[in-house]
Specification:
Low-confidence stretches: none
Shape: elongated
Helix content: 40-55%
Oligomer: single chain
Structural class: alpha+beta
Strand order of the largest sheet: 4-3-2-1-5-6
Radius of gyration: 35 Å
Number of helices: 8
Strand content: 15-25%
Largest sheet: 6 strands, antiparallel
Mean pLDDT: 82
Number of strands: 8
């Protein structure tokens, strides 16, 4: 029974490799730009018992695979070798699918078969494009100086070497999808000017690869929050005065209506 199971596994492993290696793997695989959007290439690896990927296949032959073995000295697949069909049982299949700028990993036969039958890479890429289209149509609010300064403070507390940069801010506020928007240059310009204004007000200091926070920024944030609390308190007071005025007006109307009703009763009362 065990021999049958191993034979079945070996057969399906061979079928997965056959499907994956119908297109030759180029020397370099583009993952970005126009060339990256055209890719549809599989790369077949064998995973050993230690979990590492020691073998990368190059060509499929009737009696096994030829490829390269991982060289620890050179830290790359450099040693030409082959794995016979009978030795497939000693390894676990791992396939990388480079598809339209994405990389989908299938660790094992079932993982590959599921992705292949359901066309998961195609559906995933199409879903992402729809989400990107919706994101591109949505207007993005531009955050003010104080919100940006507070964010930089929070990041600096977590990492004293934090560098603020327009791309970092955009990625945090809008996710990496901002890169594919038509107004990405305008967004970069806005946040670049915003950071420059914070530098000119001495809240930030120019540094390599961006801006760092200065101690003065703490006073700026404290003054802003103090002013915000004062504004909030004034609003609450004004709202209470407004509600009190409404109540007094209601009481006055009721009193006036009561007095008018009593006067009408006196007027309509028969004279003795």
């Amino acid at each position: 029974m065990k021999r049958i199971a191993m034979a079945v596994r070996r057969y399906f492993m061979w079928r997965v490799i056959d499907i994956s290696m119908r297109i030759a793997v180029p020397t370099s695989i583009p993952t970005s730009g126009e060339e990256g959007q055209k890719t549809n290439i599989y790369v077949v690896y064998f995973r050993g018992e230690d979990g590492e990927l020691p073998f990368m296949a190059n060509e499929m032959l009737p009696n096994g695979l030829t490829g390269k073995w991982w060289s620890k000295a050179e830290k790359k697949f450099a040693v030409e070798c082959s794995v016979p069909y009978a030795a497939f049982d000693d390894y676990r299949l791992h396939v990388q699918h480079f598809y339209k700028g994405w990389v989908f990993n299938s660790d094992g036969i079932l993982s590959f078969v599921w992705k292949h039958i359901t066309s998961y890479p195609f559906l995933r890429v199409m879903a992402d494009r729809v989400m990107q289209l919706v994101f591109n149509l949505r207007p993005l609010p531009r955050h003010d100086r104080m919100k940006v300064l507070k964010f930089i403070l929070a990041e600096t507390i977590k990492d004293k070497d934090y560098r603020a940069h327009p791309t970092r801010l955009l990625t945090h506020f809008y996710s990496v999808r901002w890169v594919h928007r038509s107004d990405k240059d305008a967004l970069m310009t806005y946040y670049g000017l915003l950071l420059a204004s914070l530098r000119d007000s001495h809240d930030l200091a120019s540094a390599e690869f961006g801006f760092t926070m200065r101690a003065k920024a703490l006073n700026t944030i404290a003054d802003y929050e103090k002013e915000e609390r004062r504004h909030t308190d004034n609003f609450k007071v004004q709202r209470r005065i407004f509600y009190l005025t409404i109540v007094l007006m209601a009481v006055g109307i009721i009193q006036a209506a009561t007095g008018g009703f009593e006067a009408w009763l006196d007027f309509t009362k028969p004279t003795p």
